[in-house]
């Protein structure tokens, strides 16, 4: 069944609102007044602006959840074992959803050998002319 066209804009706004609050798309689409996941996924595929809004909403939710780590750490009413688990889950989630900001830093080592050959002035001029001819003809 197609979602009523007159309600699409409002539904898209509602989906983005709930995504930004950290509610999963699965859960959002369980609400009777909202479309099913297949419909929302089709909207994301066919509407780049909506897809961008959804991605941004998910980033906002992940950022808010990551920042909540401090509140959890400072909350003296949460039992230590429970607190440790809460923090661990949120750290993992932040690393996966926002890897550039919260992920482990990647260090790549490169061991390469570069060989060069010396060119005299005449060889350089010949190579430059060949490059110019290629640019003009290409």
Output the helix-strand order.
Answer: HHHHHHH
Radius of gyration: 27 Å
What's the level 1 CATH class? Mainly Alpha
Which residue ranges are poorly predicted, with pLDDT under 50 across at least 5 consecutive positions? none
Separation, N- and C-terminal Cα atoms: 54 Å
The CATH architecture comes to Orthogonal Bundle
- Strand pairing plus helix content: what structural class? mainly alpha
- Helices, by number, come to 7
**Care to count the β-strands?**
0
Q: How many domains?
A: 1
* Tertiary shape: flat
Percentage of residues in strands:
under 5%
> What number is the mean pLDDT?
89
DSSP helix fraction: 55-70%
Key terms for this structure?
single chain, 138 residues, mainly alpha
List the topology elements:
Elements: H1 8-20, H2 25-28, H3 37-46, H4 48-74, H5 80-97, H6 99-102, H7 121-137
Q: Explain this structure to me?
A:
With 138 residues, the protein is mainly alpha-helical. The chain has one domain (5-102): Homeodomain-like (Arc Repressor Mutant, subunit A, Orthogonal Bundle). 67% of the residues lie in helices and 0% in strands. The chain has helices at 8-20, 25-28, 37-46, 48-74, 80-97, 99-102, 121-137. Helix 4 (48-74) packs antiparallel against helix 5. The mean pLDDT is 89.
């Amino acid at each position: 069944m197609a979602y009523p066209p007159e309600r699409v804009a409002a539904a898209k706004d509602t989906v983005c609102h709930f995504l930004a609050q950290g509610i999963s798309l699965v859960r959002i689409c369980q609400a009777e007044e909202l479309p099913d996941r297949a419909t929302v996924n089709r909207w994301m595929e066919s509407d780049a602006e909506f897809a961008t809004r959804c991605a941004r909403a998910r980033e906002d939710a992940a950022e808010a959840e990551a920042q909540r780590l401090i509140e959890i750490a400072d909350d003296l009413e949460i039992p230590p074992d429970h607190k440790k688990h809460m923090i661990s889950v949120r750290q993992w989630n932040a690393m996966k959803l926002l890897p550039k900001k919260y992920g482990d830093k990647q260090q790549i080592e490169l061991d390469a050998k570069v060989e060069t050959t010396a060119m005299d002035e005449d060889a350089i001029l010949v190579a430059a002319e060949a490059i110019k001819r290629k640019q003009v003809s290409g």
